[in-house]
Design goal:
212 residues; six-stranded mixed sheet; two-stranded parallel sheet; 21% strand
């Protein structure tokens, strides 16, 4: 809601507990059917909610900044017709995160398109020390691109890795990777949840100190 380039935000969920929380907090939501991935869920929402384009902020990325969302929105506005999606990424400087299978790594070509996503640390440092890049759960699509995503079958790479953007890559469709600044915590494990709670408490303390 703090992003400047969005007209609105809605929670898309197939879970009655999330639906109840949204109702209690007065958050707009759409209850969907069950889907293989979050992008399939957003594609269902796109059939019911008309918009120029759609940005998917995954629920396990609560610290993604409004500025990063705006960067994806701007990139989506200038997307070539041959490219079906934009996806945010950031550089990894934590060796533990590089090895963590909950952190999805991406390899990017010189023109900025995604070559491969993996939960393994890629590329392998055989001849040089590479930069490791983390894929964020922040995507942008047009409506037709979302419908194309739903029409495509899951390939062996997507099924093996559990990374939905591989569906486009496996079928030969370009995914434009966009760098953003992000130092938040993705919440994939109970340990992540504890770290996220501490970070939220720190942020709340800074807001109180600043008088906001």
């Amino acid at each position: 809601m703090e992003a400047k380039r969005l007209d609105g935000a809605v929670v898309a969920t197939d879970d009655e507990r999330i639906e109840a929380a949204c109702r209690q907090l007065g958050i707009e939501y759409i209850r969907t059917g069950e889907h293989l991935t979050g992008t399939d869920r957003v594609a269902e929402v796109a059939e019911r909610l008309q918009a120029e384009a759609y940005i998917n902020v995954q629920g396990d990325e609560p610290f993604i900044s409004p500025t990063a969302i705006d960067v994806i929105s701007e990139a989506l506005e200038h997307l070539p017709s041959s490219t079906l999606a934009v996806n945010a990424y950031t550089e990894l400087d934590d060796p533990g995160a590089v090895l963590d299978h909950n952190v999805v790594k991406v390899v990017i070509a010189a023109h900025g398109k995604a070559l491969m996503f993996s939960r393994q640390p890629i590329p392998y440092p055989k001849g040089d020390r590479p930069k490791y890049l983390r894929q964020l759960g922040l995507y942008g699509f047009t409506g037709p691109a979302l419908q194309r995503f739903r029409q495509l079958q899951q390939g062996p790479l997507e099924r093996a890795e559990g990374v939905e953007m591989l569906r486009f890559v496996e079928h030969g469709h370009a995914v434009q990777m966009v760098p953003v600044l992000d130092d938040g915590v993705a919440v994939d494990t109970p340990e992540d949840l504890a770290r996220a709670a501490s970070l939220l408490a720190e942020q709340a303390g800074r807001l109180i100190t600043s008088g906001r």
